[in-house]
């Protein structure tokens, strides 16, 4: 199971989670003479039909009115019918939720009909479809439950240890637990077999919250720690986690925990000042002062973590007012500023002046505003952050290579270089886990089959995109590509491109998949590298069935292209998954089973060795069944 979690962690990204896009029709960058009657997306696993959201817009930003999308092939293919569209450039934004592991995936593709890429897209940004109201309500209930539980734990602090409200702790935790269960049931219709590991975050949160309920009558330390851990588990499903991994999840968890503690503590202050409004000043002033001390730090944590997340997720200033995500963020910010203003009045005027009526009013107003902040946060959680629009030339990139294609892909420092070469063209992409890299540069040296060298100077065609009309000579040409980009560790990769390429052999891939699905038990050793200039991580072992391994792979649903034997070898071949930009080199045994697999995706190189144990007819393994 460790291997499965590692694989899913390194393959996650802002545009896709764990339902990988295998291929599309039309393909990204296609230039079509006639308009297609539909757009098809083939994914690596089934999606929940009700989760499919697709929007189509023209290059001027206007929406194309389309009929509802449909799913096919066991819900692994999504097809969006198109009306009669004229010439122009079209951008398709899509969003789905996996029916297997409950993770969301989103992305875009662009194609042109009867036109070239000479026009520009107006400045601005567009986002994926709007939030799911039901999911937003569930998220708000979870946030409110955490806040209530946090407030109950804060009572002993506010009253200097003289009281503790178990009822608030238990009630808040149970409310949050209900939200977790509802979210899990709504997003993970099938978590059986080898697929459930990716959906572990929410059940983990539920278990931690349930444990907190049982410990609600103990001290505050253990329940507080469990509630924080549950919030952290919830944050692994956040936009920040999808885009920036563990660091993004930690940032979101800080934001969530600080907001819950601020709101929950304030709720107890409001309760105290209203319940004791007929008592003397000394009864309520001490709890309020004790709350005011950490509240300043909680406000700072909420504000700073929110600002950082917005800066990381928003696609420029224009996205703030031109997208649903940005508009909800504006509402959240206004409510937050109003809440901070109310807190300032309470701290600087009502409390020092001993004005209980004013204090009751401003704290109640602050609490109402924070409830609105949590509501806006719930909407943001269920709204996909926007992606920027760009010039059409950058949007389309070069058209797909027509005819046989030679491919190579490898790390160059922490960047990934993706190479595609046809008879008369060379395309080189410098990519990261979030896509093409802005301001990337390449230096390319070609060593021809006769030993002579030449420098290539391709033209830019978008972020991290370079293309050049260039004919590969017959024989094997070595490309030496040095890639660099601001903020990234650059490096050099080398690739041997043979021309003409071997004849495509898709049957090799199908035979390998069939052979692996028939394996009862296999032990895999996995190694991962995210930078060619540093060592790979330590090897990780896992044992599972061949069926479970296949279902973990992005190629499980097919959609691979350019399946070609490795020149001079009968046991090795390569293939490419265009929708998710992944390159695979595999070695198989005479029985078709995998002995070694090397996978390169944006930002990672992952190697696998396979051990099937001794054959049934012998007492020790043979070389055939061992990985090299």
List the main descriptive attributes of the protein structure presented here:
628 residues, alpha+beta, 7-stranded antiparallel sheet, 6-stranded antiparallel sheet, 13 helices, 26% strand, elongated, disordered N terminus, disordered C terminus
3D architecture notes:
By secondary structure, the protein is an alpha+beta fold. It is built from 13 helices and 28 strands. The chain is 39% helix and 26% strand. Strands 23-22-28-27-26-25-24 form a 7-stranded antiparallel sheet. Strand 14 and strand 15 (435-436) form a beta hairpin. Helix 4 (201-214) packs antiparallel against helix 5 and helix 9 runs antiparallel to helix 10 (356-381).
What is the number of strand segments?
A: 28
Sheet with most strands: 7 strands, antiparallel
Overall shape: it is: elongated
Q: Please give the count of helices.
A: 13
Helix fraction, binned, reads 25-40%
- Low-confidence regions: 1-17, 117-129, 188-199, 617-628
User: Alpha-carbon distance between the termini?
Assistant: 23 Å
Average pLDDT rating: 80
Structural class: alpha+beta
| Radius of gyration, in angstroms, nearest whole number | 28 Å
How much beta, percentage-wise?
A: 25-35%
Q: Strand arrangement, largest sheet?
A: 23-22-28-27-26-25-24
């Amino acid at each position: 199971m460790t291997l499965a979690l590692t694989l899913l962690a390194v393959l996650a990204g802002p545009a896709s989670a764990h339902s990988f896009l295998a291929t599309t029709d039309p393909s990204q960058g296609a230039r079509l003479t006639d308009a297609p009657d539909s757009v098809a997306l083939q994914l690596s696993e089934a999606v929940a039909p009700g989760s499919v959201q697709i929007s189509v817009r023209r290059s001027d930003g206007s929406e194309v009115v389309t009929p509802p999308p449909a799913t096919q092939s066991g819900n692994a293919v999504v097809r969006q019918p198109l009306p009669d569209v004229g010439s122009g450039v079209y951008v398709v934004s899509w969003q789905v939720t996996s029916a297997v592991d409950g993770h969301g995936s989103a992305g875009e593709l662009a194609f042109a009909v009867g036109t070239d890429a000479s026009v520009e897209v107006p400045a601005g940004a567009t986002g994926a479809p709007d939030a799911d109201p039901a999911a937003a309500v569930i998220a708000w209930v979870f946030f409110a439950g955490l806040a209530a539980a946090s407030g109950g734990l804060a009572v002993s602090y506010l009253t200097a240890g003289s009281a503790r409200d178990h009822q608030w702790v238990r009630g808040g935790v149970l409310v949050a637990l209900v939200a977790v269960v509802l979210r899990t049931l709504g997003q993970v219709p099938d978590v059986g077999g080898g697929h459930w590991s990716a959906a572990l975050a929410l059940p983990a949160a539920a278990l931690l919250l349930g444990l907190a309920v049982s410990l609600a009558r103990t001290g505050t330390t253990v329940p507080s720690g469990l509630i924080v851990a549950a919030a952290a588990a919830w944050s692994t499903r956040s936009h920040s986690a999808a885009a920036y991994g563990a660091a993004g999840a930690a940032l979101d968890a800080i934001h969530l925990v600080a907001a819950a503690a601020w709101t929950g503590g304030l709720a107890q202050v409001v309760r105290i000042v209203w319940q004791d409004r007929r008592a003397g000043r000394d009864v309520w002033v001490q709890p309020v002062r004790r709350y005011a001390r950490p509240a300043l730090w909680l406000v700072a944590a909420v504000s700073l973590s929110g600002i950082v997340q917005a800066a990381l997720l928003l696609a420029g200033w224009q996205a703030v007012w031109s997208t649903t995500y940005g508009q909800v963020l504006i509402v959240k910010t206004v409510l937050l500023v109003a809440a901070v203003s109310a807190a300032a009045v309470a701290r600087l005027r009502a409390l020092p002046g001993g004005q209980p009526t004013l204090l009751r009013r401003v704290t109640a107003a602050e609490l109402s505003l924070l409830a609105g902040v949590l509501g806006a946060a719930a909407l943001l959680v269920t709204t996909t952050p926007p992606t920027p629009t760009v010039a059409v030339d950058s949007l389309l990139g070069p058209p797909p290579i027509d005819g046989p294609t030679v491919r190579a892909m490898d790390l160059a420092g922490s960047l990934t270089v993706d190479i595609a070469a046809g008879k008369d063209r060379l395309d080189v992409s410098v990519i990261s886990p979030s896509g093409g890299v802005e301001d990337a540069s390449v230096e390319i040296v070609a060593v021809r089959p006769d030993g002579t060298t030449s420098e290539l100077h391709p033209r830019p065609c978008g972020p991290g995109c370079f293309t050049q009309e260039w004919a590969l000579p017959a024989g094997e040409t070595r490309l030496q590509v040095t890639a660099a980009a601001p903020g990234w560790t650059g490096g050099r990769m080398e690739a041997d491109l043979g021309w003409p390429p071997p004849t495509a052999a898709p049957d090799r891939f199908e035979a390998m998949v069939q052979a692996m699905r028939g394996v009862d038990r296999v032990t895999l050793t996995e190694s991962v590298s995210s930078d060619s200039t540093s060592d790979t991580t330590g090897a990780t072992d896992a044992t599972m069935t061949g069926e479970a391994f296949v279902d973990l792979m992005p190629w499980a649903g097919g959609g691979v292209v350019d399946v070609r034997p490795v020149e001079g070898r009968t046991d090795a071949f390569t293939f490419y998954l265009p929708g998710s930009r992944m390159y695979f080199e595999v070695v198989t045994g005479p029985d078709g089973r995998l002995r070694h697999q090397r996978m390169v995706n944006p930002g990672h190189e992952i190697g696998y060795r396979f051990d099937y144990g001794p054959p049934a007819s012998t007492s020790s393994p043979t070389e055939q069944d061992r990985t090299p």
